[in-house]
């Protein structure tokens, strides 16, 4: 059975011309910037983030992803950021370079952020796959993928925080998608166009219990992303000691069921988080789950000082 799974993984990595273009994270609850450009600069903080994820640990050719991100406010209304993403799964490597732009404003008790990403994506397959007996060496799409597929994508995100308690977000990943190469695909309809049928929606609330110095944060996330099974996340997060210690639990009832556990700390400007995912499906017996680490440095934007009124009597009379 493990050999069958290995062949399946190899096949998926070889014919990755239709592989997912949206990274999967478990720690999007802590760092929503990973998936939602509308959060850029939203809390008036500058963020430097390193995220590493190893999926299906212990299984040959399992996915590993690394994300390096910066974002922060520009003035009182705008936000800017950028990220570099690298993933390897089997014989496939994916590199993404992303620019992030946002606009934030307030309507009475609601804070709203709107964001946009522009992204260049390069996906290539190792030339070693051409010598594999299960591969057709005359496959034009495969030969082109060895040289590297290139895509331009753009995503849209919106984030809302009402009364500092209720939050909601909507992301349209790869809302715009354009091919930058001429590599043939088995499905020509995938080459360009709009991806507005794909979305990530999240809704939650922050329940503050001041007497216990504790906050409870239940939320739900619904994800319908290109080439990834439809997924619902039921999240519960506890924040202790003025948010210095955070623990969380996620249950995903779809695709056989899975759970994710989160633990982390925020001390001064530093953030350190770890999460572990385990599946209830049959494939779990061939791997030791998925691990995700995040290290971040965050600091608040200092507002410019307001100059004092001129109180010099001599100058006032000039």
Q: How would you classify the helix and strand content by structural class?
A: mainly beta
**Strand order of the main beta sheet, please?**
1-2-3-4-5-6-7-9-11-12-13-14-15-16
Q: What sequence of helices (H) and strands (E) makes up the elements? A: HEEEEEHEEEEEEEEEEEH
Looking at the overall shape, the CATH architecture is: Beta Barrel
Fraction of residues in helices? under 10%
Tally of distinct domains: 1
- The CATH class: Mainly Beta
First-last Cα distance = 91 Å
Question: Per DSSP, what share of the residues sits in E-state strands of 2 or more residues?
Answer: over 45%
Annotation, overall tally of beta strands: 16
Rg, Cα atoms, Å: 23 Å
Q: What does the main sheet amount to?
A: 14 strands, antiparallel, barrel
Shape: globular
Give the name of the CATH superfamily.
monomeric porin ompg
Low-confidence stretches are 4-8, 10-19, 310-318
């Amino acid at each position: 059975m493990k050999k069958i799974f290995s062949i399946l993984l190899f096949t998926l990595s070889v014919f990755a011309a239709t592989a997912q273009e949206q990274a999967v994270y478990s720690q999007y609850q802590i760092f929503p910037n990973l998936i939602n450009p509308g959060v850029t600069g939203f809390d008036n903080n500058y963020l430097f983030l390193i995220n590493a994820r190893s999926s299906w640990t212990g299984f040959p050719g399992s996915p590993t992803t690394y994300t390096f991100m910066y974002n922060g406010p520009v003035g009182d209304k705008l936000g800017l950021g950028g990220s570099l993403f690298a993933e390897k799964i089997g014989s496939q490597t994916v590199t993404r370079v992303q620019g992030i732009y946002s606009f934030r404003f307030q309507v009475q008790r609601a804070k709203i952020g709107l964001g946009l990403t522009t992204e260049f994506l390069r996906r290539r397959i190792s030339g070693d796959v051409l010598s594999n007996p299960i591969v057709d060496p005359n496959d034009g799409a495969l030969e082109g993928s060895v040289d590297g597929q290139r895509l331009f994508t753009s995503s849209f995100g919106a984030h809302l925080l009402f009364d500092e308690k209720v939050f909601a977000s909507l992301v349209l990943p790869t809302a715009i998608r354009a091919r930058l190469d001429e590599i043939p695909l088995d499905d020509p309809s995938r080459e360009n166009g709009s991806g507005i049928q794909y979305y990530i929606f999240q809704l939650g609330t922050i329940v503050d219990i001041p007497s216990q110095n504790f906050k409870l944060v239940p939320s739900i996330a619904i994800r319908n992303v290109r080439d990834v099974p439809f997924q619902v996340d039921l999240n519960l997060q506890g924040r202790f000691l003025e948010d210095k210690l955070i623990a969380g639990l996620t249950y995903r009832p779809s695709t056989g069921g899975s759970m994710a556990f989160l633990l982390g700390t925020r001390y001064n400007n530093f953030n350190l988080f770890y999460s572990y995912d385990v599946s209830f499906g049959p494939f779990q017996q061939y791997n030791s789950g998925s691990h995700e680490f995040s290290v971040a440095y965050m600091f608040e934007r200092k507002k410019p000082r307001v100059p004092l009124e001129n109180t010099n009597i001599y100058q006032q009379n000039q």
